[in-house]
Each structure stands twice: as C-alpha cells, then as structure tokens.
Design brief:
single chain, alpha/beta, Rossmann fold, Helicase, Ruva Protein, domain 3, 9 strands, about 15% strand, elongated, binds S-adenosylmethionine
Length: about 350
C-alpha cells in the first residue's frame, strides 16, 4: 500500500528476466559487434547508482541491448528515458520494457555516433553552464570500439558547449575497457598517463568508479571493464580552443619515452624549429627534459597558453602540420631518386 502523502516509487511490474528476453527474441550476442551483456540486475543497479540521483531525471541510455541497465534506470524512478540502439534485433524486447513503463520510454533505432543529441531532451531542462548540472544523464555500456571515439567526440562537445551539453553540464556514466579507464584517470608520472588523460581531465572530473570483472558479462570479454563517471567542470583547466589543446597534447605525446621537447619541436616548421621550441619551453617555464607522462596539468596549460600567443603573432603556425611536412619531404626524395636513376636498357 502507498504511504499517504508520499508518491509511490516506480517499480517495473514482473517481467521475463533479461536472460529469458534473450532466449525469447533469440538475441545471440554478435562477437564481431563486441556485444557482451549484463544479466545480473544487482550489477546494473550498481552502475546506475554511480550516475547519482535519477528520480525524475531525463536519461539517455546508449546501447541498451537486451535491457539490463534499462531496467535499473527505470526502477530509479526517472521521468523520461531515451534509448538509442543500433541493432534492430533488440527493439522488440525494448518495446516490451516500454509497455511496462507507460509514457516513460522513447526508443530510437539509430547510431549514437551520428544521433543529434542537441535535440534529445526538452528545452525547458536547459541550465546555464555555471549553474548546477541539468537533470539530464547519459548512461551506457557500449562496445569499446564505440566508447572511446564517443568520449573524444563528447569531450569536444563539452569544450564547445554543444551536442548533449547545450543543456548545460550533462553528466555521463559510461563503461570502458579497464586500461582505457586507467588512461582516462591517470595522474602525472603514472604508467597510463596519456593524451586521453589530459583531454578528459582538463574538461571533466573523471571518476573511475569500480571494475566489473569480465566474467560478469555474457559472453565473457577478453578484458575487465570499468565504470567511469564524468561530471563536466564549470571552468576547463586549459582555457584554449579544443583543437589547439588537442594539437599541443598530441604533439607532446608523439614521442612518449623521449624528453618532452622532442614532441614539442613538431609544433614548428623546420626553419626556426629549435629557436621556437626553446622560446616556448622557456616562456612556459617547462623543463624540456621531463618525459611527456611526467607533465602536470598546469604545465600543459602553460604550454597551450604560450603556443596560443605564438600562433596569434604568426597565424600560419597553427595550420603547420609536421606529418604533412614529412610526407612532402618523402615525396620529394623519391621523385629526386627516380629522376636521377640511370635508365635501364
Ligand atoms: N547495455 C547492454 C548490457 O549492458 O547488457 C548491452 C551492452 S553491449 C556491450 C553494447 C550494445 O550497444 C549492443 O546492444 C549494441 O548493439 C549497441 N551498440 C553498438 N554500437 C552502437 C552505436 N553506435 N549506437 C548505438 N548502439 C550501439
């Protein structure tokens, strides 16, 4: 019986189990699509709990598959749940869940990499960036081949405040291969410190919540999985355009085991490279003999700010592309070699 004066909490009515849905609709996991399902609802509840308070929230679940996480999201009492699933075989099972939670679920048969997230939620949910995050969450257990490009795309969206972040600081709770999660959260000096660590930590508080052992999935993947929660920061740690930060960070990590100046050199054309590298390192006050993985976030900020000033003084600098220069040189060399070869008779 409902407690007088209190709205009764939403619970899904009795339904076939996720395992039964899989059998009923013959949802054999497709290995080539890296489909690994979670059938243990205690585990899916634990993932959903990491997202925070979901009562009356608007949630988008990416890749719901047979719907284990979907059930936990619905049981958390959300107001609206948008499901984006690429594989048509899962749609009838999701429709069954939708009927059990009338008016709450919207199913989209589509690809999250191209879906227009800026139109996914009602406009009235929008918050200013500096305000509390909107009551919007993105949750998903996606294939690893999708989750990494997706987080890079969403980090760019955070930086530009577009895509799912036109609503404000929308929070994401996503699964990754354990090693990728370690890269996302690695501190300076850590073995896993990489480009992904800087790009994610300068825009979000990145929380590595817990590890799900591979054997919890059906079928079992080769690797363990980690749940990562990303609340976007009000103020990015590096206040420069995404493309500029990306270029500096990519260049620095180009030669991971060498001194960091080796990668920084590649920001500059051959003519004047040494002088400009010295100028950048000195003005940014960064020791050129540190290794890329030893650099702190404030050292990356200083490098990006100084590089930005140099680009403002010489706008051709930002479009300079080291790899393209190498390609052109190689082309020229092979052209010269072919024209200087003696002709065979
Ligand atoms: N969330 C379910 C679970 O935890 O049991 C299924 C997880 S399975 C690893 C990944 C799911 O994402 C599959 O249902 C797959 O079809 C779906 N998927 C894969 N790529 C997708 C994409 N680009 N857009 C939307 N869904 C995708």
């Amino acid at each position: 019986m409902a407690v007088p004066g209190k709205a009764a909490a939403f619970r899904l009515p009795p339904l076939p189990t996720v395992g039964e849905i899989i059998k009923l609709f013959r949802l054999k996991a497709q290995k080539q699509l890296s489909q690994n399902f979670l059938l243990d609802l205690r585990l899916t509840d634990k993932i959903v709990k990491q997202a925070g308070e979901l009562k009356n929230a608007h949630v988008c679940e990416v890749g719901p598959g047979p719907g284990g996480i979907t059930r936990s999201i619905l049981n958390a009492g959300v107001e609206q749940l948008l499901l984006i699933e690429k594989d048509a075989r899962f749609i009838p099972g999701l429709q069954m869940l939708s009927e059990a939670a009338p008016g709450k679920v919207r199913i989209v048969h589509g690809d999250i990499l191209t879906y227009k997230m800026e139109r996914a939620f009602p406009k009235f949910l929008k918050k200013n960036w500096e305000d509390e995050p909107p009551d919007i969450h993105i949750i998903g257990n996606l294939p690893f081949s999708v989750s990494t490009p997706l987080i890079i795309k969403w980090l760019e969206n955070i930086s530009k405040k577009d895509g799912p972040f036109i609503y404000g600081r929308t929070q994401m709770t996503l699964t990754f291969q354990k090693e990728v999660a370690e890269r996302l959260t690695a501190n300076p000096g850590g073995k896993q410190r990489s480009r992904l660590s800087i790009m994610s930590q300068h825009l979000c508080t990145v929380e590595n919540c817990f590890v799900i052992p591979g054997q919890a999935f059906v079928p079992k993947p080769e690797v363990d999985v980690a749940v990562v929660h990303f609340p976007p920061l009000v103020q990015p740690k590096i206040q420069q355009p995404f493309e500029l930060v990306e270029k500096v960070v990519r260049s620095v990590f180009q030669f991971r085991r060498k001194y960091c100046f080796r990668g920084i050199e590649t920001l500059f054309p051959e003519n004047g490279r040494l002088k400009r590298t010295e100028q950048l390192m000195m003005t940014a006050n960064v020791d050129p003999t540190l290794r890329p993985f030893q650099l702190s976030m404030s050292q990356f900020r200083s490098l990006c700010d100084t590089y930005r000033k140099m680009c403002d003084e010489d706008p051709a600098l930002f479009v300079y592309n080291y790899r393209e220069e190498l390609r052109q040189k190689k082309k020229m060399r092979s052209l010269l070699e072919s024209t200087s070869e003696p002709k065979q008779t």
